Amino acid sequence: MRPGDYVTHIDHGIGKFAGLEKLEINGQLQEAVRLVYRDNDLLYVSINSLHKISKYVGKEGTEPRMNKLGSDAWEKLKNNTKKKVKDIARDLIKLYAKRKAQQGFAYSPDTYLQVELEASFMYEDTPDQSKATFDVKKDMENPHPMDRLVCGDVGFGKTEIAIRAAFKAISDSKQVAILVPTTILANQHYRTFKERLKDFPCNIDYINRFKTAAEQKDVLKRLAEGKLDLVIGTHKLLSKETKFKDLGLLIIDEEQKFGVAAKEKLKGFKTNVDTLTLTATPIPRTLHFSLMGARDLSIINTPPANRQAVETAVYNYADDIIKEAILNEVERGGQVFFVHHRVKDIYELGKHIEAICPGVKIAVAHGKLEGDQLEDVMMRFIEGEYDVLVATTIIEAGLDISNANTIIINNAHMFGLSDLHQMRGRVGRSNKKAFCYLMVPSMVGLSNDARRRLQAIEEFSDLGSGFNVAMRDLDIRGAGNLLGGEQSGFIAEIGFEMYHKILDEAIHELKEEEFADVFKDEKPVNKIESKDCNVETDFEALIPDNYVRNIGERLSLYNALASLQSEAELQQFEAQLIDRFGATPKAVKDLLDLIKLRELGKTLGFEKLILKKQQLLAYFPSEHKQFYYQSEVFSNILLYVQNRPKICKLKQSNQQLILLIFDVNSIKQGMHYLQEISQINALPSHADHT
Question: Do 620 and 574 share a structural domain?
């Protein structure tokens, strides 16, 4: 966040961020975030409540309405949004429930052949890859149809997961269809699957426009008769002539590349067939469906061993830079992709590159070439006969050439963010350092959106940043919608993050109330635990200026802290602080302890903790939460108060019941008392003994 950015506060609505400010409370310094609201009203938000603020993300270029502090307009807007969001979520959960109620095919547990196939993978699985494989196989063994999205960055091993799932289906005598967006990718997948499954009893073929009519007919005939186990294809697979004898698994690669019509046809396929979708840059809508619990999601974040990030930079177009980039790569024995967006002048460009890099062998490839020609060019490039492949975006989906480690993208401003990310993913697939050059005519004439896309792709060059790219895409293009136009309006009114929080709450409530029977297998949410516990203190708990001087850095550390919950996460955070800034001062240790205090308060159901003037005040939930006052947690707190009258007592204010603990001289001591109470709650009750 930068000063002037719009932010949304969960209780007060939309204001402007105006930096950090030191405040003196009972003689102690505290750091707070300063927010400006309508009519220049000021709100100071303690750094312990940072989780209540989020940066406002709405539609690019539209300014939100700022709220007036103290008015009920924001509360009304939130409630109205929640009602509408609940209607949308209800439809979504009905879809999910319908799928769960359908009877699919339950695959049998892994055979010895499955174990053998997985052991023959030449690389070691990353932890995320193992988990995704496990999740997919578990879904397949369930009697309900699977609908899982595997979102992993380019080159992080999604294809291997697809191979294992396909083989599991084939082992149970089911057929598998793999739908891919491009002809080249169909070829590439065919080679990969053929190679991985060559020692196993599988009949594999593919169908695309490179095959003659007679060859295509033959593939379809064998498919209908059940003589083909696995077929890989482009849109051709969706035609009316395609008939399966017993389709068990549908794998869709890069779902966002298919149009609405193709997706409608897919729905016909998918009624009770297991579906596995692979994507590297989840488009916001797909991403969203998954985050919402209407689809199952596996994210692969860990890069394969020895993989390095691709060095990415934006340049004004210049022959010298292109020449240097190509010659450097060729001299170290590598190959280069040169991407150009138009077919009509691609051959001239090829000749131009030949002229500026004499002696370098250049090939040209684009989607309008005849099938045999295109396949021939690609094969010869893969086998190393050419140094540079000048191509259109046909290379973006799935080409895996480990010797190509430099990519130059001409007129990079013409491409979308996910396209740029995908194309960059074609290099750096081995343990060599890879480079991506984004060429633009001049930064000056670029539109605002194009400039932001290029900045984003440059910024997110780390391995595994596809997820961040998708989130930034959401920021640049506006949040779009989930099921129709109706809710993009209220995303603009309340901001994306806030919308997300409300969406989460709505889904939680629906799962617990209306659809409790659909989600009965899910771990029940602890109803006693409060959603949030506000903490106020007069102890100096902050990151001092002399420890972290940069204000932006301090703010991002506070932000990171706001989302931490477990002891392990806090320990890891402190270790990183020590590593970067040296031993942690007392004020920082107190800040970390405050978060532990907040989490303890939440588990005991307290809605607010005030630790001031050597007293700890713990506020119980309001009286409408009747179930809380009938719970074992509450009766144990009463027991604690009866047994320790010297250190604590209960007090009734106008609105709430408060637990008062005396002589609390430090945050640690406050934690100690709450831990004592929670340990009583962890003890087995009398009923458990009998």
Answer: yes
